[in-house]
Amino acid sequence: MDTFKFANSKDIRCQNLTEMARVGFMKAEPEKKKGSSEYEVYVNTDDNGDIPHFHLRYAQDGSEFHSCIEFNDAKYFEHEGKEDKLNKNFRKSLIEFFNKPAENFDCTNWELALRLWNTNNRRPKVDPYLEMPDYTKLK
């Protein structure tokens, strides 16, 4: 396979995704820090959680902020050590991020996150046409 074409492929199935599959990076203003910071949104591959969810962590150091949020409901997914909560501005930034077009893909970041979960996890699957829950209701 041609390396250049592989690197620019829009087909998720052609990518070697091990351990985690990055959806993208977003800017947000958490309560713990002053000013805007960059956060990474991703799904784990072969996640052992029984509920489809995504991870959100501080891009520089995941130990500073790490949260897990369900796809199907505006609820946090309980993961030991990954229990940070999003404030109002952070929740708004998350929604804006998911509504933006995904980089290098013909879909939104939300649609990409759903595809990445289904591509990288055998079970349980998430509806690929699932509407985004109202994440402003995360508490």
Summarize the main sheet.
4 strands, antiparallel
The CA-CA distance between the termini, in Å, is: 47 Å
**Helix content range:** 10-25%
Structural class per helix/strand content?
alpha+beta
- DSSP summary: helix tally: 3
Gross geometry: globular
Quickly list its features:
single chain, 139 residues, alpha+beta, 4-stranded antiparallel beta sheet, 4 strands, 21% helix, globular, disordered N terminus
Structural summary, described in words:
With about 140 residues, this protein is of the alpha+beta class. It is built from three helices and four strands. The chain has helices at about 5, 90-100, 110-120; strands at about 20-30, 35-45, 55-60, 65-70. It has a four-stranded antiparallel beta sheet with strand order 1-2-3-4, with helices on one face. Strand 2 and strand 3 (about 55-60) form a beta hairpin. The chain is globular. The termini are far apart.
Secondary structure layout:
Blueprint (H helix, E strand, L loop, with lengths): L2 H5 L12 E9 L8 E8 L8 E6 L7 E5 L17 H12 L9 H12 L19
Antiparallel strand pairs: 1-2, 2-3, 3-4
Summarize the structure.
The protein has helices at residues 3-7, 88-99, 109-120, and strands at residues 20-28, 37-44, 53-58, 66-70.
